[in-house]
Each structure stands twice: as structure tokens, then as C-alpha cells.
Amino acid sequence: MNALMIKGLAFAAVLMIATLAVVMSMDIDLSDPINLITMIGALVIAGLSAGVSIKYINQMKTDTATGELVDHSWDGIGEYKNELPSGWAFSFLATIIWALWYWFAGYPVNAFSQIGQYNEEVLAHQAKFEEKHKNADAATLQQMGESIFLVQCAPCHGETGDGLSGKAQDFTTRESKEQILDVIANGSDQLKYPMGAMPGGMASGADAEAIADYIVAGMKGEAPASYGVCAGCHGADGTGNGGTAPNIADYDNTLVHSVLEHGKKGIIGAMPAFKGRFTPVQEKALATYLHSLEN
Amino acid sequence: MFHWLEKNPFFFSVGVFLVIAFAGLVEILPNFAEASRPVVGLKPYTVLELAGKEVYKKDACIACHSQLIRPFKSETDRYGQVSLSGEYAYDRPFLWGSKRTGPDLHRVGNYRTTDWHENHMWDPTSVVPQSIMPAYKHMFTNIADIETAYAEAVTVKNVFATPYGDEFQGTRAAWEAHKPKVLADAKLITADMKNKDVKDAVEAGNIPEIVALIAYMNRLK
Q1: CA A153 to CA B112: how far, in whole Å?
Q2: Which of A115, A159, A270 is facing B115, going by the closest CB pair?
Q3: Which domain holds residue A185?
Q4: How far apart are CA A147 and CA A167, in angstroms?
Q5: Is the Cβ pair B126, A164 closer than 8 Å?
Q6: Is the pTM of this model over 0.80?
Q7: How many domains in chain A?
Q8: ipTM score assigned to the predicted complex
């Protein structure tokens, strides 16, 4: 073992110890495979650097020029006739084979779609998201709903969901008296519930006023006699007979889903449809959050 | 042959250029030709929308708003599907922008409505409290130049073969015949608006800039 070898090994040892020292001092989590592979890579690079340096420094010190020169001289600089290094030749061949596979089997001309790949990744991510939050508890849904609301809904409905003084639906109540009177007078067929369209003019005058006052007040106490005509579809408690008609007492999952799916145009203004923008779990989270705003 | 090339740097450079240029051509040209075609179902802008696009350019909306959704999940979650080259086929020029002081607008028509734009352009903080966007009240009184917008439509039809119908001709009679259609489009917008002066102006045959701009915003989907 000569002096160069000892110096090289000492250098490699210093690099490796330095690597390990950094790993220790930064308290890096080695159970994460990326961290582990990175650390092993750093150690291997340290070893290889020393090994390769030793080989070539040694060669520079001891090697003498031997071999047959090629005929051509490049401005006085010659070149030995050498065999192609076998490692290089094999990798070159492997690259050619891989290129044939790539062109004809892997990604034939025009077969790759960046948008398609992106869509597949998004779908996979959403499936993972749905799976993860399949049985999410109320607190998680509430938090998720709030963050979706602040990005997607707050620009129109306001950060607190109060509808910015009548510019959009006010989520602190289910509906206002004007909205109820408007729907009673004009009917509605926007949300595509199984019960079908609600015709306009099912009640009028004092009857309509009584219904509106009753619903706005939270549907407590004795229902006015005229409410009977509403109860047929929306149910005596206004919750919509288990999803066959819109819930007029509260924001539930079906109502939130239907409005997102079809959009809505009422006396306040129009809301565009948000079809396909949210996953089922996200819609449920929004419904949870809206429900909490009302109470 | 190669020895000869090595002794002639000029021809060597020419050879290198040819090789690289060929690789560039086979990579770029087919892709470019494919991507610059309009996407299926894309329609040219109506005259009212073109007038709105002019307002967008004139008031430099592009200085703060982009119209290009990049393929990142954070962007597609917020703004919608990734933008495709073919969607800009009738944009002359396209208004991609490079600055997002405000949000991207490429699909704003999917999640904002006429009445929201009306509130927002009159006083942005009334709907978005932290907004730093200035109010654009002058758009409610300035009258949009729909005649120039019509001329633009006829020009791109003649120069770039944009598929406008036969009724688009560079004559005054053709414009007079088309004008009621523009006013009808404008009335569809004002039906959802609340500002009385704007409604009256459209009834009187003058289209305020805000109406044209909202038509353009609603078109961005």
C-alpha cells in the first residue's frame, strides 16, 4: 500500500464521516426511502471519487506510452489504436435496443398525450383522496369545507357566507322572504329533483306571505294551513321527503350537490354550475360547512 | 470525407446546422401545425365579445390578469381545465399575459356571472374585501366601439379566413343589417344587470363598455 492509496482512503473516510455527521446533526429521518437512498448515494460517490482519483493519479505517475498509433495526425497530436471499451459498447447496444422499444412499443409516434397523462394523474389523485377521506369525521369535513368555501365560494358569497348584503345567497339563513315569494309566484325547475318541476302560483296573496313568514322563522310552531300545499312535496318538516324535493329547511348534501351540478338563477342573480369541479367527499364537506354556517 | 470536413470549418458548420435544423423541424413543425388548429366546437368571437376584448386590451387587464391555465393540480383545482393551444386559434392577438396580480381569467365564464361582474367592476371591494383591483366605473358610461369591432371581425375573416358567416361584409349596409343582432346580444346581458343607466343606454341603442366586457368575460370558458 503506497502513500497515495493511504491519502485517498483517508480522503474518502473524511467525506463519508462528514456525510454521516450531517445526517446525524440534522436529525434526518432515514425511514423515508428518499433520504436513505440519498445518503447511500452520497457515501458511494465519496468512495468512487477517491477510488477513481487513486487509479488515475497512479496511472499518471507510472504509465508509459505504448501501443500502435493511427495513421492520421491531428496538427501533430497522435492517437493510439484502442479497442472500444466493452462497457461502453454494451451500453451503446442497449441504448439502441431501448430506442427501438421506445419508438415501436413504448411510445409510438403521436401515441403520447401530455393532457391525457395529466388527466390520468388527476383521476388517480382523486381516487386516492376519496379513499383516504371515505369515512372522514365531522371535524375534518368541516375544515375541508371551509377551505374549499374560501377559495371557490367566498368571492361571491363573502368570506363569512353572508352573501355580501344581498349580492348572493346568504348562508346564515336558508332563504329570505323575497326569495320564497319569488319561487312561489314563478315556480322552479332548476335543480332536477325526482319530484320534477314546481309550478308557479301554488299560493298567492296572504297565503304566500304566511308560508314565507313561517319558513323564514325557521319552521317552528304551528304551520299555517296554507303550508299544506308545500308539505306535499317538501315534507311537513320541509326537509324534502328524503331527497325527492329540495330541502327548504336546511342545507343538506343533496341540495348542495344539486345546486353545484345545475347552477341556479333566482331573484338575487345567477350562479353558474360547478359540475365536476368537486369530488363527492368535497361536496359533502361543503354541505357540512354550509350547515354549520346556518346554525 | 470527415477529414475534409475537419479542414473546412465553414462547411462543417453548415453540416452541423443542417443536422440540428432537421431534428428541430421534425420535432416542432407537426406539433405546431396540430396545436394551432382550433379545438372542436370553437366559435369565432361575436361582435359584442370582440368589442369587450378591445375594452380588455384598452384598460390593460392583461397587466394583472393572465389567460393561461398551467398543468398543475393547484391551478386546475382553482381555475379549471388546462389551457390548450387550439383554444386561442381566434385570438388575434392572444392575451396570455405573464403577470398574475389578480387571478387567471381563461375560464372565468365558468364560475362568475353577469351580476357578479357588474358588482365587481363597479366596486371590487364590495364583493372581495381584500381586493386591490381599482374600480372601473367609467366602463358603465363609456360607449363601446362596436363598429370597429365589426370591422375587426370582417378583417380577420378576409385576412385569416376566420369562419364568420356570409353576412360579414365590409360594407355599411352589411353593418347596418348586423347591428340589431349586436344589440340583441347586449340586451341578453343587461337582462341580468341591475344598473338602470346601463339598461337605458342599451335600450337607446348605445352599448356601454361594461356590457361588452361582461359578454367577453362570460365567453371565456
Answers
A1: 10
A2: A270
A3: 175-237
A4: 21
A5: yes
A6: no
A7: 3
A8: 0.74
